[in-house]
Design brief:
The protein is α/β, with parallel strands linked by helices. It is 41% helix and 15% strand. The strands form three sheets. It has a five-stranded parallel β-sheet, with helices on both faces. The chain has a four-stranded mixed β-sheet with strand order 4-3-10-9, covered by helices on one side. Strands 8-11-12 form a three-stranded mixed β-sheet, with helices on both faces.
Length: 337
């Protein structure tokens, strides 16, 4: 059963942990929507935002606003807590924000790839199964009670152009759902808050279908572009590269079906829509160019791990993942499948 939302809808205490592109976008829009928001940041971002506030450039204009910013311990416990790190940084972030979570806190992890909570709330033989790739030490399951999580996937293309400043010109879309796929008052409350803040919100019948749809979009493009340096137009328009993406797509479809899930769109539409985005660099390619770690664990490794549970082989996906791991750390250890 889901927990009740024990906060007044008009004035919940909201915290956003993570001052990257997505965290800044969410925090900014919530402030524009009139909500009180605490932003958890660190290092250069923390000092910059304390002095200058935050800035969001979006299709509605150029928004500059002061923000309450600090470490997690600087804020009282949150009614709603958005977690917005790169997926591989989630365990570290979770350990740092424990003080913000009470038994009534709604936790909204805004991350890419297969989430650590994927098997929670299902009430079947897989309930509680750990996904080692994304939560190797079980830290996330220990710190964040699954009953308090609302699943989410986003269609937000934002970039942090410098500390405290994010830019996005596309519609802001968020898909949310309870882990047991039931309707709930707190889900409606969250949808209302996001709607008032300028987000288009969907509440699908099955949140995992939405998760898989986003995962597949990333799986068939991000690692290939990290290896090749291709834009999305090139990845899905070049006959050599699109053939690789097609093979990866056909490898993942049986995995999705094995877990009683499905894509929300026709598989071929994923390839076509990627090409239509034009000369856009994927987030993984941008991370590689910045020298930042790549989100391979949640986008590639976790999918392969789920396939192995059912003895499904994914040779092309495994090979592309291996190459992307090498590109991510060419002087490090050899990736072990």
């Amino acid at each position: 059963m889901v927990e009740p939302f024990n906060s007044e809808l008009e004035n919940p205490r909201i915290c956003v942990a993570g001052a990257g592109a997505i965290g800044l976008t969410i925090a900014s829009r919530l402030l524009i929507g009139g909500f009180r928001v605490g932003l958890v940041a660190r290092g250069e971002s923390l000092s910059f935002i304390k002095e200058n506030g935050i800035r969001l450039i979006d299709k509605e204009g150029d928004h500059r606003m002061p923000a309450e910013v600090g470490h997690a311990t600087d804020f009282p416990p949150a009614d709603i807590l958005f977690l917005c790190p790169k997926s591989h940084d989630m365990p570290t972030l979770a350990a740092s924000i424990k003080s913000l979570i009470t038994s009534n806190t709604i936790v909204v992890p805004v991350i890419n790839g297969i989430p650590w909570w994927y098997f929670d709330g299902k009430d079947d033989i897989w309930d509680g199964q750990q996904i080692v790739a994304v939560d190797p030490d079980g830290v996330l399951k220990q710190i964040i009670p699954s009953r308090q999580i609302i699943g989410v996937t986003t269609m937000i293309t934002a970039e942090r152009i410098h500390p405290g400043t994010a830019r996005t010109f596309n519609p802001l879309q968020m898909t949310i759902g309870e882990l047991d796929d039931r309707a709930s008052d707190r889900l409606d409350d969250l949808a209302s808050i996001l709607g008032k803040s300028g987000f288009t919100v969907r509440k699908p019948l099955h949140i995992r279908d939405a998760i898989w749809t986003k995962v597949v979009r990333n799986l068939v493009s991000n690692p290939v572009t990290a290896i090749t340096g291709a834009t999305l137009r090139q990845n899905f328009g070049n006959s050599y590269l699109v053939d690789i993406s097609k093979l990866m797509l056909h490898e993942v479809l049986p995995v999705i079906a094995t877990y009683d899930a499905k894509l929300e769109v026709d598989p071929e539409m994923i390839l076509e829509s990627g090409w239509k985005l034009g000369d856009v660099k994927t987030s993984m390619l941008q991370d590689l160019e910045r020298g930042s770690p790549l989100e391979l664990a949640s986008i590639c490794d976790a999918v392969i791990e789920l396939a192995k549970f059912h003895r499904i082989v994914m040779p092309v996906t495994q090979a592309i993942s291996n190459l992307a791991h090498f590109k991510s750390s060419p002087d490090g250890d050899v990736f072990a499948a």
